[in-house]
Specification:
The protein is mainly α. The protein has 2 domains: 211 residues, Rossmann fold; 78 residues, Tyrosyl-Transfer RNA Synthetase. Helix content is 53%, strand content 7%. It has 13 helices and 5 strands. The strands form 2 sheets. A 3-stranded parallel beta sheet has the order 1-2-3. It has a two-stranded parallel ribbon with strand order 4-5. β1, α1 and β2 form a beta-alpha-beta unit. α4 packs across α7 and α9 packs antiparallel against α12. The longest helix has 30 residues. The relative contact order is 0.14. The protein binds adenosine-5'-triphosphate (ATP) and L-tryptophanamide. Adenosine-5'-triphosphate (ATP) binds next to α1.
Length: 337
């Protein structure tokens, strides 16, 4: 009797830009879920260097940051043997598909993207066309692999919605071609806020280093950043509207300890903010210590990292080649030899 064949796994795709050391926001909002899901899905994770150049990058620095970001991704538990891991520019199909999809994307849709509005305000001297079409490239990343699920933070929800619209529009115009992907968000920590201005998202490119915890910050730095985190004039550790700073710290503490908001409130009842901030710092530092040790090991082994990238890019290329062939036929291009 033949063994029953298991249903094929659904596919995940996600990416992160090599624009600096990852923050606790990137880690809790996205990468921790990549790790959690990597065995239950056919997982593909990439370092989005094509996206990174929408903001001015110093070439030598970008090359270093890409290598570091790749090592960080592995240090966070993404295993090149269990997931496909690669660098976006090493698979040319992303850029190729992006062009085709840009012809199924409306100018008006792109104009409504809040990230475009934010980034063009922050980089007023470099509002380039790539910054505007950034979400089309992100749609190409996802659709080229026919991903079912995309684990991301809440700030990328609007881009994912656009990718879904592009897929649906293309499918309607040319016939069923792309899987329409769903987003996957963490229960706690889909949007960590700046420690210095808790109404603003924690972002790697924040010019104030105290605003975010980088996952390679040492313990003293982490403790200091939490100690200085902006809170309010109240003293009670509880999750309430208007207590943005405390809500953010409670979210972080909950995300790294697994405790609920009620448990956290009970734990710090009557203690004030000082001991709470210290406990958050300790818990985060303990949580990040193994990632930091693994990163130190990996970054010293460039040959291994390069080998993983090259193999990953080859695996990725073989998947997207088929998808691209189908797209080119659908839109009416003559087959390439
Ligand atoms: P940049 O500051 O260069 O724009 P970023 O910190 O916003 O970078 P990205 O590379 O754009 O980081 O994002 C990688 C992943 O991390 C995405 O899935 C994004 O949604 C998630 N993410 C980014 N910031 C946060 C945050 N503050 N809270 C939760 N998730 C986040
Ligand atoms: N735009 C994303 C990074 C990114 C991405 C993707 C995420 C590029 N391509 C595809 C999910 C799927 C960001 O985090 N700023």
């Amino acid at each position: 009797m033949s063994e029953p064949t298991a249903a094929p796994k659904k596919r995940i795709f996600s990416a992160i830009q090599p624009t600096g050391v990852f923050t606790l926001g990137n880690y809790i909002g996205a990468i921790r879920n990549w790790h959690k899901l990597q065995d239950d899905f056919d997982s593909i994770y990439c370092i989005a260097d094509l996206h990174a150049i929408t903001v001015l990058q110093e070439p030598a620095e970008l090359r270093k940051n890409t290598m570091r970001a790749f090592a960080l991704m592995l240090a966070c538990g993404i295993d090149p043997k269990r997931s496909i891991t690669f660098v976006q520019s090493q698979n040319p199909h992303h850029a190729e598909l992006s062009w085709v999809l840009s012809c199924s994307t409306m100018f008006g849709e792109l104009s409504r993207m809040t990230q475009f509005k934010d980034k063009s305000a922050r980089h007023a001297d470099n509002i380039n066309a790539g910054l505007f079409t950034y979400p089309v490239l992100m749609a190409a990343d996802i659709l080229a692999y026919n991903a079912d699920l995309v684990p991301i933070g809440a700030d990328q929800k609007q881009h994912l919605e656009l990718a879904r619209n592009i897929a649906q529009r293309f499918n309607q115009r040319y016939g069923e071609t792309f899987t329409v992907p769903d987003g996957y968000f963490p229960e706690q920590g889909a949007r960590l806020m700046s420690l210095q201005d808790p109404t603003k998202k924690m972002s790697k490119s924040d010019e104030n280093a105290n605003a975010c915890v980088y996952i390679l910050d040492d313990k003293d730095t982490i403790l200091r950043k939490f100690k200085r985190a902006v809170t309010d004039s109240d003293t009670e550790v509880c999750y309430k509207e208007g207590k943005d700073g405390i809500n953010n710290l409670m979210t972080i503490y909950g995300a790294v300890t697994g405790k609920t908001m009620d448990e956290i409130t009970a734990e710090f009842a009557g203690q004030g903010y000082g001991p709470f901030k210290e406990a958050v710092g300790e818990a985060v530092a303990d949580h990040l210590a193994p990632v930091q040790a693994e990163y130190a090991r990996l970054i010293a082994d460039k040959a291994y990292l390069t080998q993983c990238m090259t193999e990953g890019a080859g695996q990725a290329f073989r998947i997207t080649r088929k998808a691209l062939q189908k797209v080119y036929r659908r839109v009416g291009f003559i087959d390439r030899l």
